[in-house]
Amino acid sequence: MAESFLFCIAESLIAKLASWAYEETSMVLGAYKDLREFTRTLSYLKAVLLDADQKQEDNQELQEWLRQIKLVFSDAENVLEELEYENLRKKHGIDSNKIKVGQFFSNSNPIVIRHRIARKIKEIKNGLDRVAADRHKFGLKIIDVDGRVVHKREMTYSHVDSDVIGREHDKENIIKLLLLHGNDRTLSVIPIVGIGGLGKTTLAKLVFNDSRMDECFELKMWVCVSEGFDVKQLIVKIINSANDSSSADTPVHHQQKFKDLDIEQLQNRLRKKLRGQKFLLIFDDVWNGSRVEWVRMRDLIQVGAVGSKIVVTTRSHNIASMMGTLPSHILEGLSPEDSLSVFLKWAFKEGEEKKYPHLVNIGREIARKCGGVPLAVRTLGSLLFSKFDTNEWEYVRNNEIWNLPQISGDILPALKLSYDQMPFYLKQCFALFALYPKDYTFDSFDVTSLWGALGLLPSQKGNQILKNGANQYLYELLSISFIQDFVDYGIGFTFKMHYLVHELAKSVAFGDCLLTDYSLECMDSVARGVRHLSFRKDVLGGEFGVQRLSGVRTILFPIAGVGSHNKAFLDAFTTSCKHLRFLDLSDSTYETLPLSIGKLKHLRFLSLENNTKVKTLPDSICNLLKLEVLILIGCTQLETLPKGLRKLISLQHLEITTKLCVLPEDDIENLSSLKTLKIECCDNLESLFGGIKLPNLRALCVANCRSLKSLSLDSDHFPALETLLVDNCDMLKLAEVQEGRNSNSRLKVLTFVSLPQLVTLPLWLQGSMTTLQFLSISSCNSLVVLPEWLSAMNCLKTLCITDCPNVLSLPNDIHGLPTLERLEIHGCPESLGKSQLQVGESSHKP
């Protein structure tokens, strides 16, 4: 199924080839003609890829054709990456024009490199031509993105079985909302939100068919939206449903003729039908729709009697927010007991389960793996109906759901509807969740770093931090309920993924992503097309050849505390997998890295986090001109940093732990792309940033540097700094800065934690009067007073003061802050708690 990403890859390649930089370079290489022809062929193929993807399921020859295209595309991405690398070297003057005679035929000679790239471009162009020549024999049609076939859910209806299990409490909550506020003049809209298969429609049916609804509402209407929020179509559906509700004798032909009326005639009939009636309208299965369309629809139906209500079922939190006037009812999963009851209902005839107690025990485990989703329970129960062989039940229990037979209406097809509706750029990102184990707690930084390293994020503009565009993708997944348990911790957030959604990710990523326990000897069974490898445990074994996996782009150890300790593993992959983009060696125990690390030209992410053995790093790391993220945090034995850090011209995020007394600040100052810097557990470090400039730095974290005495943060040197965290630095005196300095600082987020020398807030913070939004001060025992000028922070939204026992009061006018939304005070004198109450009351006044 990973072949469905080919359309997105083709778009990305075409966009790159259209850039001025590639055109200019291709002329220098003498490959302009080849690249132009390659682009034209690529455009032809892109036009039919969507049709090919939809037809490939039962056509092995077409599947093989798509695999061939995938290989060519992968080669094309690699050669364009190499072209970018050489452009960077040339642009920044990193490669020397002086070539010794003995080096003339070396692979490092720019002339030899350009010749090799030109030859590769011609080979790839010829390869694509050969594959493209076969496209006609499959009868493929040109399909654009908007015209692609997206499998729709079947239309729903209002009838419901009387024996629905486990939704009585949810039903009563919704009915309570429908019966309350009976005199409100506003048309109330109650959204029900949850992932596919959770039972939103069933819950709406239970409510719709409850006898109390007949007593409360004169008119009940059920409309399945599903196919799109088209106002004219919805008007017809509402009128037809209203006719059904008001008269069972309404002839079908009378209903159908409404489709022939224009919008003016239809809206007149709709308003006439609803005017003065107290109605209940169910909008089931709403997927999309703009606010403009919804407001048009709402205004047309807002002619009913006082107390009319609408219930909306949707998978999208955005839709719920747009349409709802009351808080969304977030539908949770069934309890384990209810899940088992549903399972037994579908797996056995009534009462039959009593004959097979051993199967019931297996069924309990099967039901548990469904994560409380009724449709999943029904799917697996139905699969075992009238089957009493223990082996068959154990097979279902032991296999992943996506490996089991599925038919229309089962759980994975139901969830895949949400996946089908995703934009193509999000599909690739979602598939990479298959690299993580189930029940994993994700951190936004880890996930978005992976996406960025693989080139799946939108191009950054200006001084934008790497994470900004990526977080928008995560919010889109949150909106459609594909991620959950979302916790914002200020500079990022954590979240989880429902087991079944994770199963879907594994399904769509099959053949492209692999999470494995394999030893090196077992790796021969890994499919050649796998490009992203994730390991649950250390990879054991001796000598190992990875030539067959030379296309691997990701190496990941996602589980905390689990890393690589096998030198043969690292040597093999850094030598043979020259197209690695993401290399996570967290929790490893290497004392150094192989020199070959510097030949990974495409590498964008490298982490040695929490490696407590590494002492030195090869200087060849500084040849990684495309490296964007370098994490050395927790490397407590690291004695020195590689020489030539300034050559890392693409580096945006740097985290350092080292035994050095002085950081190579001249090199750091020349990291022109650096936007985030974290310095932690550098116990020998006494001063930072003595006059150096970091004009593009947006976020700075300094933590657990016990000897640090000075931290120079002059705004002239850090004009773009927005986020500052200083934590557990015993000797640091931040306030010792001349008044008037940093008057132009633009901080938005500021956190001070465990700073024993902090007596009051530093004067330079006054420069952020019009920008500071978040201020948190914690465990600062010497802090005595908060300055009066804090009351002038006219953008401050959050103020948190915790465990500061000597702060006796807040500034007098703190209650006047116009934007304050959250004030938290804990572990402080009682008098300060009283101020909290006063501020809390006044800050929420209109």
Q: Can you walk me through this structure?
A:
By secondary structure, the protein is of the alpha/beta class. Among the domains are: 2-138; 168-330, Rossmann fold, CATH 3.40.50; 336-403, no CATH class; 430-504, Orthogonal Bundle (Arc Repressor Mutant, subunit A), CATH 1.10.10; 738-846, Ribonuclease Inhibitor (Leucine-rich repeat, LRR (right-handed beta-alpha superhelix), Alpha-Beta Horseshoe), CATH 3.80.10.10. The chain is built from 25 helices and 24 strands. The strands form 4 sheets. The chain has a 14-stranded parallel sheet with strand order 9-10-11-12-13-14-15-16-18-20-21-22-23-24, with helices on both faces. Strands 2-3-4-1-5 form a 5-stranded parallel sheet, sandwiched between helices. Strands 6-8-7 form a 3-stranded antiparallel sheet. Strand 3, helix 12 (291-301) and strand 4 form a beta-alpha-beta unit. The protein is globular and about 80 Å long. The two termini are 54 Å apart.
Provide a short characterization of the protein structure:
The chain has 846 residues and is an alpha/beta fold. It has a 14-stranded parallel beta sheet with strand order 9-10-11-12-13-14-15-16-18-20-21-22-23-24, with helices on both faces. Strands 2-3-4-1-5 form a five-stranded parallel beta sheet, sandwiched between helices.
